[in-house]
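SEQUENCE WITH STRUCTURE:
===
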Amino acid sequence: MPESPQDTHQHAMTTILDSLDALVYVADMDTHELLFLNEYGRSKWGMPAGRRCWEVLQKNQQGPCAFCTNHHLRDAGGNSSGVHVWEFQNTVTGRWFQCRDQAIRWVDGRLVRLEIATDITDRKQTEQALEEARIKAQQLADTDVLTHINNRRAFFKLGEQLLLQAHRFGQPASLIMFDLDFFKQINDNHGHAAGDAVLVQIAQLCTSNIRDADIAARLGGEEFAILLPQTDYPHALNLATRLHNAIANNPTAFNGQQLPCTASFGVTCTDHWVQAGNSMPVLDELLNAADQRLFSVKRNGRNGIA
């Protein structure tokens, strides 16, 4: 018996939908029962067999998906609100899809969900690789190559942000500057590799003695700085003392030798400006004040704190 024109049309539509290199499915918007799944979907998720969309297309679901977009597809009157486009990583295949969801009238008149999902995994992987490369390049640009702590560029960028926050919330911030005493002698007597080993150890001593919120950096050569949010002068001085002792008491081991080292420190705090009736200092002013204190230590024989 030949097909009716309606059957022929339905068969043609099914053939077209089954030929698409994209997922096409229809689900009841209230019961979530899968009413149609094209060949692309059946080949990856299996036959619907009267199951609900979240039982077929996703995994580890005990009910309708929390990320279901049905609420975007109907307006306040219960009618279709148009096409909703979004991106999603499928929980079964791990593939990324761009989804075009829309509420349409089914053959029996009820409103159903139609989704057409195109695999965009290659594009997403490229985007993610580019983002990872961007983040890595940013990290490299902000990281001292030798010691792997912040470099001067990162210190100024992060430090200016920290001081703005300190000013906004009326909190103190302190700055410690220090450099290694007679560092040139280490390079001259033991070679630059020995000097590099000392700088790496100093950076490690810094990071092991500060908080996650503190900003430590190698400003250049043998000069280091630490910016301390929510820290008054006595607490900053206490940290400088701990670091001063740690450097003096932990010589760097290099090629079977112990390379002792001391450092000179300058410490300042934003409270010094506020208490004097001045406005909150900018980072350059804070650095200059700490540098002057550091210079006074050097002028008095080095290996101390001011």
The chain has eleven helices and eleven strands. The longest strand covers residues 96-105. The chain has a mean pLDDT of 92.
